[in-house]
Amino acid sequence: MQYKKHIITFSNLGEFILQILNDEPLKPLFSSARNENGWFTEDNVKLAVENIAKIYLNKVALEKFAEKYSISENNNPKKIGIVMAGNIPAVGFHDLLCTVLTGNIALIKLSSSDTATMMFLINKLFELDPSLKEVIRIAQRLNDADALIATGSDNTAKHFEYYFASKPRIIRRNRTSVAVINGNETRSELADLGNDIFQYFGLGCRNVSKLYVPIGYQFDKFYESIEYWSTIRLHHKYNNNYDYNKSIYLVNRVPHLDNGFLILKEDEALVSPISVCYYETYENETHLAQLLEENAEKIQCTVSTDAKYENSFRFGEAQVPKLEDFADGIDTMFFLMNL
C-alpha cells in the first residue's frame, strides 16, 4: 500500500534529521530561518525539527498511528489546501504528514514567517522519494483545493470561513494553553513548567499563558524554579516586549509580580502578552473544573502534575504532542479520510 511506502520515507527523514542535528549541514537552515523570522533562533529551530523527528517521524509510532485508521489505497485523491501558520518553526508539518498518509494531495500555502524550515523538510522528502513531488505542491492560491485545513487568528478564520464556505474545512482559531498548580509541586516540576511557558518565546498555542493557582498561593518557589530561563532576556525581541509591558503596568499602577524576565498579573483573560503570564485563583476542585469548562473552547492543552484534566499533559510536555494529539481536538486523519 502507498501509505506504507510513505511511512518509510517519513521515518527516513526522521533518521536523517537526528543524524545531522548538531552538524554543519543544518547551519544554513538556522541562518535562513533566523533571517526570515527574528523569533526563530537556532535553539528553537533545532528543538522543533528534533521533536518532529523523534515524535512524528518514528517508524513504529507512524505505523501504530496509521493502523488506527485502516488506511486503504486512495484511488480518488483530493487536493487539500493547507494554510500554514508561522508562529513556531514547522508548525504545519503535521497537517502535511496526515494529508500524504491518507493518499491525498497537499497544496501548501507557506507562511512567509516559516518558509525556510518547511522547505528544508519538504526538499529532503523529495530527495528521499521524488514521486512525492506529485502529492506535495507549494501553492500561492488555493482555488483548486477540494478541502481546506487552515491555521490562523480569529480574524483570518472569518475570511477562511467566507471564501471556503462551500468546501469541507478545518479552520483553527486562536487558542492557548494553561497550567494548573496545586501548591505541592516540586521544584523540578515547576522548572518543567518553565519550559511550557518559555519555549518558542511563548508564541505557540501550546505555550502556557495562564496559571490557575489555589487562593493564597505564593509564587516565590515558582520564580526560583524557573530562574534558569533568565537568559531569555538576552533576546532583543523578547526583551523589548518585557520592557514595554513592565512600563505599561508601572505607569498605570497595575498590580503585578516581576522577577526580571517574567511578569505575573492576576487576570481572568487567557491570552497574555509575550513576557507576561496571567494567573487566576480557584477555591477548590469544583471551582477549578468550572473555570476550565468555561474556557474549554479556547484551551489547546492543560499541564499539571498528574495530567488528570481534559487535554492534559504533565509539566514540560506541552510542546511535545504525539501524533494523535490533534490541534483543537479535531481529528485531521478522520476528516481527510471521509471527504
Q: Tally the beta strands.
A: 12
CATH architecture of the largest domain: 3-Layer(aba) Sandwich
* Oligomer designation: single chain
Mean pLDDT: 95
Mind explaining what this structure looks like?
This is Acyl-CoA reductase. Helix 1 (2-20) packs antiparallel against helix 3 (42-56) and helix 1 (2-20) runs antiparallel to helix 4 (59-67). It is globular and about 60 Å long. 40% of the residues lie in helices and 17% in strands. The protein is built from twelve helices and twelve strands. The chain is an alpha/beta fold and 339 residues long. The protein has helices at residues 2-20, 27-36, 42-56, 59-67, 93-101, 116-128, 154-163, 187-198, 220-225, 236-251, 285-294, 332-337; strands at residues 79-83, 105-109, 136-138, 147-151, 169-172, 176-180, 208-214, 257-258, 263-266, 276-282, 299-304, 312-314. The chain has two domains: 2-174, Aldehyde Dehydrogenase, Chain A, domain 1; 176-314, 3-Layer(aba) Sandwich (Aldehyde Dehydrogenase, Chain A, domain 2), CATH 3.40.309.
Question: Topology, pairings included?
Answer:
Blueprint: H1 2-20, H2 27-36, H3 42-56, H4 59-67, E1 79-83, H5 93-101, E2 105-109, H6 116-128, E3 136-138, E4 147-151, H7 154-163, E5 169-172, E6 176-180, H8 187-198, E7 208-214, H9 220-225, H10 236-251, E8 257-258, E9 263-266, E10 276-282, H11 285-294, E11 299-304, E12 312-314, H12 332-337
Parallel strand pairs: 1-2, 1-4, 2-3, 4-5, 6-7, 6-11, 7-10, 9-10, 11-12
Antiparallel strand pairs: 8-9
